[in-house]
């Protein structure tokens, strides 16, 4: 088993379906979203059992300590979307700390697990929360699980204490049992639902930005504007650059190019009526920079 965070093989990370469209193979994802989840907590709290109960609906009474890290994949459906869950099971021993914390950064959801029959595992939840703050993304979704709730006769951590620490940190809480399958599926579905809500909101914001004034090449435009400003051309193009101005400025820059290079054919180097807007845009930026360099006294070499 690999102990280091190597990229997943494509066969594991992205399942695709190939279909023939117009005689060409076309790849299609079998899911809408891929969520990476992480199970953390002290050794022996039941993280692996929780994972196997959810992924395989199985429970093994034999305790085998996880070495380094392991993972399972399961696809679920939420709000009409197919969600592929990539669930990473981490070792709780301190000796694996460096290896396991390297997986925090890409996690979209983290489950912190403690054993309700072991006081120390509950006390260490604060330590695991600090690890999340240090190594995980700021917007990661979190959930606390009090596992082994079927062993109520050996309970030392009350449910109220678990709920209290969850409230203090503003995160979800559930008591679970991998052995009797209590709240296992609900825990994963709740966490995935929180991530999906955030993802859908992000997608809507990106769609709104694309509709309201953003178009390909805007970053390049701002860079060109900065160069022009440094050469004494002044005003920023970013606030006044429209399709009409693109065409108008293309004509003007071509005229300037004709004067600079004493070549009347430069104006017709690109066929304006047939060129796409994108082609004109990039041609304009190139010629614009060339003009700036010429006018600012810098040497420019143009390949023929």
TrEMBL record:
Top-rank taxon: Eukaryota
Membrane topology of the entry: Lipid-anchor
Location relative to the cell: Endomembrane system
UniProt-listed NCBIfam families: small_GTP
Species, as recorded: Pocillopora damicornis
Protein name, per record: Ras-related protein Rab-10
Entries under CDD domains matching the protein: Rab8_Rab10_Rab13_like
Family assignment from sequence similarity: Belongs to the small GTPase superfamily. Rab family.
S-adenosyl-L-methionine listed as a keyword: no
Keywords assigned: GTP-binding, Lipoprotein, Membrane, Nucleotide-binding, Prenylation
Gene3D superfamilies tied to this protein: P-loop containing nucleotide triphosphate hydrolases
GO cellular-component term (any): cytoplasm
SUPFAM superfamilies associated with the record: P-loop containing nucleoside triphosphate hydrolases
Claim: Transport is one of the keywords in the record: no
GO molecular function annotations of the record: GTP binding; GTPase activity
């Amino acid at each position: 088993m690999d102990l280091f965070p190597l990229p997943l093989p494509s066969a594991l990370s992205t399942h695709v379906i190939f279909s023939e469209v117009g005689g060409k193979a076309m790849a299609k994802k079998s899911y809408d979203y891929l969520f990476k989840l992480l199970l953390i907590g002290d050794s022996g709290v039941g993280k692996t059992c929780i994972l196997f109960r959810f992924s395989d609906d199985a429970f093994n009474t034999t305790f085998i300590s996880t070495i380094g890290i392991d993972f399972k994949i399961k696809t679920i459906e939420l709000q009409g979307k197919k969600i592929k869950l990539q669930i990473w099971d981490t070792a709780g021993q301190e000796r694996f700390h460096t290896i396991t914390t390297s997986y925090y950064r890409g996690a979209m959801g983290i489950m912190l697990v403690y054993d309700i029959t072991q006081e120390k595992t509950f006390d260490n939840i604060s330590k695991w929360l600090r690890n999340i703050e240090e190594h995980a993304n700021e917007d990661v979704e979190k959930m606390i699980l009090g596992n082994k709730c079927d062993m109520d006769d050996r309970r030392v951590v009350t449910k109220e204490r678990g709920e209290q620490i969850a409230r203090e940190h503003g995160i979800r809480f559930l008591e679970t049992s991998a052995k009797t399958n209590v709240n296992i599926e609900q825990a994963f579905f709740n966490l995935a639902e929180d991530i999906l809500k955030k993802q859908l909101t992000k997608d809507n914001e990106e769609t709104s930005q694309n509709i309201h004034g953003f178009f390909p090449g805007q970053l390049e435009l701002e860079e060109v504007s900065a160069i022009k400003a440094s050469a004494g051309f002044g005003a920023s193009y970013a606030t006044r650059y429209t399709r009409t101005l693109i065409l108008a400025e293309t004509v003007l820059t071509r005229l300037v190019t004709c004067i600079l290079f004493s070549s009347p054919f430069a104006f017709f180097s690109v066929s304006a009526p047939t060129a796409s807007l994108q082609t004109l845009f990039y041609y304009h930026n190139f010629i614009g920079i060339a003009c700036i360099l010429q006018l600012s006294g810098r040497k420019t070499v143009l390949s023929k």
